[in-house]
Amino acid sequence: MNDSTITLPWLVIREDDNGNRYRVGRYATRAEAQRIADSLDGRGHKRLYWVERLGQHGSGGAHD
Questions:
Q1: What string of H, E and C letters represents the secondary structure of the chain?
Q2: How far, CA to CA in Å, does 57 sit from each of 43, 46, 51, 53?
Q3: What is the pLDDT of residues 24-54, one digit of tens each?
Q4: Whether the predicted model's global pTM rises above the 0.85 cut
Q5: Rounded Cα–Cα distance for residues 3 and 20 (Å)
């Protein structure tokens, strides 16, 4: 693990209508990541956003 993995372990992931998943960003706390996911989700786009901890699903479960 490098320093950014340790200090930014929380990911916001986006899934589009075709099932493609993308990493939106990395954050220090779950609360910070959840605020970002909630703000993106509230924009009315038909996309799914969620928070997961780095390493929870393999290497983060999303592409950059």
A1: CCHHHHHCCEEEEEECCCCCEEEEEEECCHHHHHHHHHHHHCCCCCCEEEEEECCCCCCCCCEC
A2: 26, 23, 12, 8
A3: 999 999 999 999 999 998 776 667 999 999 9
A4: no
A5: 28
Comparing CA positions, the residue from 7, 41, 44 lying closest to residue 24 is 41
Please give the Cα distance from 13 to 22 (Å, whole number).
6
Kindly tell me the burial class for residue 47, based on how many C-beta atoms sit within 10 Å of its own C-beta (0-12, 13-18, 19 or more). Answer: middle
Left if phi > 0, otherwise alpha if psi is -120 to 50, otherwise beta: which for 60? Answer: left
Q: Which single residue is written with the structure tokens 């996309």?
A: 47
